[in-house]
Amino acid sequence: MYSGPNVGMSNLRIKYPIHTLDNQILIPAGGEVSAGKIDDLISTNRNTYDSIPLLSYKSVQKDIIKVIKSAPLYNVIFGDDKQLASLMNHLESVTLISPLLDILDYFKEHDFYTYRHHLSVFALSTLIATEMIDDYTDRLKDVESGPTHDFGKICIPLDILRKQTPLTEKEYNRLKDHPMAGYVLLSYYYKDTNKIAPIVARDHHERMDGSGYPSGINLDNRLAEITIVSDIYDALISQRPYRHISFDNRTACEEITKMAEENKLHWEVVQCMIALNRKERPHFAECSISNVKRGSPPPLNNYGITLKRDVK
Ligand SMILES: [Fe+2]
Ligand SMILES: [Fe+2]
Fold first, then answer.
1. Rounded to the nearest whole angstrom, what is the distance from the C-alpha of residue 149 to the centroid of ligand 2?
2. Model pTM?
3. Taking Cα atoms as reference points, which of 78, 147, 140, 125 lies closest to residue 225?
4. Among the bound ligands, the one closest to the CA of 153
5. Residue 184 sits in a domain of what CATH number?
6. How many domains does the chain contain in total?
7. Beta bridge partners of 118
8. Ligand closest to CA 205
9. Residue-wise pLDDT tens digits, 127-146
10. Distance of alpha carbon 46 from alpha carbon 23, whole angstroms
C-alpha cells in the first residue's frame, strides 16, 4: 500500500487564479476547486507529453548530488557513498513529463531555493521510503513520485516567495494556496487526480491531528507523511529568505520529534529520519528518541510571523 485513499477533497474556493507556467488559467480567482471541476479540466487537456528520465534531464543528476553534498547537515544522512550510489541508481527509473520539467527549470532560474528544496526533499523522501516500504524501489517507476511537492508555488508571486521580511497576513494566506494549486496543476498534467504526485502536493501541509491546511484532514497517507517530514527537516536546516541562520541538526530533530509527540507527524517516519541521522544507522523501529529538548532555534527567525496589516 503506497498511499491512503484519496480522501479529504473538500471543495475550496480560491481567492487567486490557478494557472500554468504559460498563464493558461485553470481555475479563475474566486473559483471553486472540486472533484468535478478538476475532471472537467482534465477532459479538456488533449496534449500528450513526453516522459523524460529525471536524472538525464539537463543538470538534474549533478544538481541533486551537489545539493545534498553541499549542505553540511546532510553529511550523515547522505554521507555513505555506497548508499548514495544505490539511491541514485533507484532514481534512474524516475521519469517526469515535459511540462513538469519546465516547472523545475522555472524554479532553477527564478527561485533557486525552491529548486534546491525540491531536489533535496525528493532525495530525502525517496531514501526514507526505501527504508520504510519493503518493495518501494521496485515500484518507484509506477509510483510516479518526483520533485514536485511545491509546484503550486508557480502561482505565487516571486516577490512573496523571495521576501526576506515577515509576510503580511494577506501574503501568507496567498502562499497557503500553493498545495491546492499544485494539486490542480499536477492532476491536469497527469490527467489523473489519484496519482501520488498531485495528492502529495495537495496534502503536504496537512497534519495527522487535523491541524494543517488546506482542508484540515486527519492525514493518513504514508508517502505524504514521508514527504512532510522531509519537507520540514529540509526547511529547518536550510537558510531561508526569512531566516538567514538555519537550525542546527539537534534542534531540527527536536522540532520534528515534538511534532510527532503532538501527533502532527507520523512517529515511525520521524524515527526513520532520526535513525538515518545517526552514524551507527540503527533500524528505524529500534531507534530510540530522547524526549529531552536542549536545542535552541536560531535568532532572527521570521517563519510563521506575519504582520497584521499590509505595510505599503
Ligand atoms: Fe509547501
Ligand atoms: Fe516544501
1. 6
2. 0.92
3. 125
4. 1
5. 1.10.3210.10
6. 1
7. none
8. 1
9. 999 999 988 888 877 778 89
10. 17
